[in-house]
Design brief:
mainly alpha; elongated; 157 residues; 57% helix
């Protein structure tokens, strides 16, 4: 059962909007700066005030971000009209592009999982030294140094 938040007749203050939407006050300010929400008016007491529609927009943003959408993808979806066939097509295109990013990330994560499993299987703890740590040091040594040329890295063994 949900308990309604008391609010001023003019709208939600930022803390109330944060609570009602599940988006932190800092993120609300950030989304305003990023143009995902219009800058809000202020009440007589100079507090920012948010409407029910603003809280809905914040929930929409939170949902999209939970689906790992970028701010640009969220901005695109926020700008679409759910009653427009053309905008429905644009939403499909945006989601298809995001699905492509998710699928690529899944491929990367599967490769990472395979690499981590191989690393984990390289050591059962029965030898005199840990082959996991040894392998990680070897990988670190194989990486090029950034910035400083001609210096050697110190290995912590």
């Amino acid at each position: 059962m949900s308990v309604a938040m008391p609010r001023a007749a003019q709208g939600f203050r930022i803390g109330e909007a944060a609570h009602a939407s599940g988006v932190s006050a800092a993120n609300i300010r950030y989304y305003e700066k990023q143009g995902l929400m219009a800058p809000q008016g202020r009440g007589d007491n100079s507090y920012r005030l948010y409407s029910d529609a603003d809280v809905h927009t914040l929930r929409f943003i939170r949902l999209c971000r939970a689906m790992d959408m970028s701010l640009d993808e969220v901005r695109t979806l926020l700008g679409l009209d759910l009653r427009s066939k053309t905008d429905c097509d644009a939403a499909c295109v945006a989601l298809d592009a995001h699905l492509g990013h998710v699928r690529e990330r899944l491929r990367e994560l599967r490769a990472l999982e395979k690499d981590l499993l191989a690393l984990r299987n390289s050591c059962d703890g029965s030898d005199a030294q840990c082959h996991i740590i040894e392998s990680l040091h070897a990988r670190a040594d194989a990486q090029p140094l950034r910035g400083e040329r001609g210096t050697s890295a110190t290995r912590h063994v």
